[in-house]
Amino acid sequence: MPINKKKTVDSKANQISLPKKTMLGLFDNLLKTRLLDERFRKLYRQGRFAGTYFSAVGQEATTVGPTYGLRDEDIIAPSHREIGANVTKGVPLDKIIAQVYARESSPDKGKSHPCHYGWKAKGVITPSSTLAGQTVVGTGCAMGFKIMKKDNVVLAFFGEGSTSRGGWHEALNYAGIHNLPIVYICQNNLWAESVPSTLQAGIEDFSDRAKAYGFPGITIDGNNVFTVHKTASEAISKARKGEGPTLIECKTYRWYGHSEIDPADYRTQEELEEWKRKDPLQIAEKILMDLKILTTTKREALVEQINQEIDEAIESVEKDAYAAPEEAYIDVYSEQFPVKRVDW
Q1: From the DSSP assignment, how many helices (H) and strands (E) are in the chain?
Q2: Does the pTM of the predicted model rise above 0.85?
Q3: Residues 263-291 pLDDT 10s
Q4: DSSP, residue by residue, 124-174
Q5: What's the CATH code of the domain at 137?
Q6: Structural domain of residue 107, as residue ranges?
Q7: Considering its fold, how many domains does the chain have in total?
Q8: In this structure, is residue 67 part of a structural domain?
Q9: What's the CA gap between 37 and 51, in Å, rounded?
Q10: Minimal CA–CA distance to 94: which of 281, 334, 314, 318?
Q11: Other C-beta atoms lying within 10 Å of the C-beta of residue 107
Q12: Does some domain include residue 339?
């Protein structure tokens, strides 16, 4: 099996070779993801839900770009920072909010940690807290598509820290051997919680890891949603045609801590400010403005529309009850577990 060399995609060369409708659709989902994400951070500080919250502000393009245009039957294997993938795949906002709020209306009935979004109707696997665990499950789904001779694909999302897990390597090795229809999206935000990428691996580009498994690895600007979408779309098309997996490394950055309880004092303010100047939302907006596709008036109207949608979803979810304690036994075993008091 020939091993394709890693290639780097130039963002400027790819940013305008997309249909106007696609570019506006990408911006719409990028904006909705940002507004919902920032709202969650405020709600957490107001004590409106328990636990913590894992913000993806700053790296939204890495999830919105690959997901846009997928079929409902395509599978997403997410981690805990894939709010953009859920929004773009079409998971209703009230389902996303109910998951964070742990209400009975949540797809997981309040069983999972906040930000473990998932919804069967849109092919989004509910992630586990085990790093790279969803990568293994997603690879299994890709094998299922191949066995059933379906041209559906899987997108597996993870941070660069997950590439240090043994299960991650086993999954990619298996995908390479069996030429599976899966695209692996590595969101290299430079930090695996508080560990810098330089202390995780002796390579600069994590896409180099694909070489060991016999399929292409690509490193791109993860803050240009148009570049990410175009690159991922090409890899998805290749996978649909039975031409195997691709590993795409998106260079990006998360603005806030690992979660809302993390002050992120392990990194410098200079580093943060440098990456904030590469804000994916501002990059996309400037490109659309320069192309005369977006106007300030249209953007303001879109913000108002999205905020209203978020307001209505929050109001609805906050009226929902929490799941009953007995719900913890449901959807765990193939046969319903008998719920009764046991006197030891």
Answers
A1: 11, 8
A2: yes
A3: 999 999 999 999 999 999 999 999 999 99
A4: BPPPPSSTTHHHHHHHHHHHHHHHTT----EEEEEEGGGGGSHHHHHHHHH
A5: 3.40.50.970
A6: 7-329
A7: 1
A8: yes
A9: 16
A10: 314
A11: 22
A12: no
